[in-house]
Amino acid sequence: MTTDGYLLIAARGLRMLAYGALSVVLALYLAGWGVSASEIGLLFTVALAGAAVVTSAVSLRADRWGRRRLLMGAALLMAVAGVALATPVPFPVLLLCAALGAVSPGGQEVGPFQALEQAALAESGTSPASVLPYAWYNLVGYGGVALGALGAGAVPTALEAAGWSPLAAERTLLWGFAGVGALLAGLYASLSPRVEGRRRRATSSGTLHRSRGVVLRLTALFGLDALAGGFVVQGLVALWFHQRFHLGVDRLGPLFFGANLLSALSGFYAARLARRIGLLTTMVLTHLPSNLLLALVPLMPTWPLAAAVLLARHALSQMDVPTRQAYTMALVPPEERAAAAGLTTAVRPAAASLTPLLAGVALQTAGSGIPFFLAGGLKALYDVILWVVFRHVPLADREPSGPAAPRRPPGGSDSRRRAAPLS
Question: H-type helices in 354-409, by residue range?
Fold first, then answer.
């Protein structure tokens, strides 16, 4: 990769460190203010919806406005949102700040960061279909989330032992979140002009042509997956463990550290597996069993068993992420990658924003397993449809199956069937 590629990966790790801490502490922090579970769900819904709007607006004009400039602006919005969350303000003001699209309720990407970075990262390696750059990207990201979750447990615990109130101790993490946003702005300013990618004519900037049909179908399916994921964003899962088993941040932090560490390491297994059986097959065969494990979490009678099933689920659930990113970039020609990345990224928080409010209402009944059952079932449906729809769609760029490997369809097996057009 180029120097810009390493800078983008470093920025991803720093950002996800802040998101990981926020996802563990935010719901508990707001509950300490007296915010109800349904209001927390509403806040998370607004945060995800705002992220979708911002991502859609930004990514479709990224090549015209400039990727560096947009990344710096998104980082500054993150800093502003952090300051607002750390300051006691009325709940409607919190909703307004969440709408900026810079607050991550689940320890996952929000806003335009990933769409812009994903498009730039496709230019930094030997092939856009190579999973390895995205595996590093996600390894560092999930490693950051894991360390952030660990810090969310350790820092407040240490401060409370020194005499701080729980709310004041948790607030320090929100100030740290704001500080990370400011640091990111400086890091993005150091990127070279090469990250802007291939310039397109103004008449076609931000549009899809050859790949429009396939990208729209892929976007719809990613939306279904994200819709299901909105029921179990990390902040709400932390709240569920707190309600069901009365766990505090001292236990929740290490739990989500382990979960995200497993998610990080799984990316490299995904890269190896994708070289052997293909991108699409890897996505489906690793994601489907993880969804069955997700539905089993609320059926566990004790918190160690529930935690064990959750960890097993995380060891599989994110193997499709770097594979999905490589698959998306390999499906489309280079000049349409920024727009494709923007649409497929923006749909995730948009769809996920529809469900946290419902999950928050369900969680007002302590220990309710409804969000887990709905998420697992819908995600399994997504896997089946994805395989049926895309198993014969050819890639615009050949999969990384070795130096002299023959071209294969996305399903990973040779086929004599004539490939269907992209759109």
Answer: 356-363, 370-390
In angstroms, the CA 64 to CA 155 distance is 42
Q: How many whole angstroms separate alpha carbon 238 and alpha carbon 278?
A: 34
pTM for the model = 0.64
Closest CA to 360 of 371, 350, 349, 352: 371
Structure tokens at 260: 């995200």
Nearest Cα residue to 44 out of 413, 356, 328: 356
> Domains plus CATH for the chain?
3-192+207-390 (1.20.1250.20)
Structure tokens at 193: 């002009």
Question: What is the reported pLDDT for 248?
Answer: 82
> How many C-beta atoms surround the C-beta of residue 281 within 10 A?
21
pLDDT in the model for residue 409: 41
23, 34, 35, 39: which is closest to 249 by C-alpha? 23
Could you tell me which residues come within 8 angstroms of residue 234 by beta carbon, excluding any fewer than 6 positions away? Answer: 23, 24, 105, 106, 107, 108, 256
Q: How far apart (Å, rounded) are the C-alpha atoms in residues 193 and 171?
A: 37
- Angstrom CA distances, 312 to 130, 244, 262, stand at 26, 20, 8
The pLDDT, as a whole number, for residue 313 is 92
Long-range contacts of the stretch 273-277 (C-beta < 8 A, 24+):
273/319, 274/131, 274/323, 274/326, 274/399, 274/400, 275/131, 275/399, 275/400, 275/401, 275/402, 276/401, 276/412, 277/412
10-residue averages of pLDDT along the chain (423 residues):
85 93 86 82 83 77 79 90 84 83 78 81 61 79 85 88 89 93 93 71 54 86 87 82 84 85 79 85 91 93 94 88 84 77 76 70 65 90 93 66 39 36 31
DSSP for 57-95 reads HHHTTHHHH-HHHHHHHHHHHHHHHHHHHHS---HHHHH
Token reading at 128: 């856009």
Which residue from 366, 367, 237, 253 is spatially nearest to 301, judged by alpha carbons?
Answer: 367
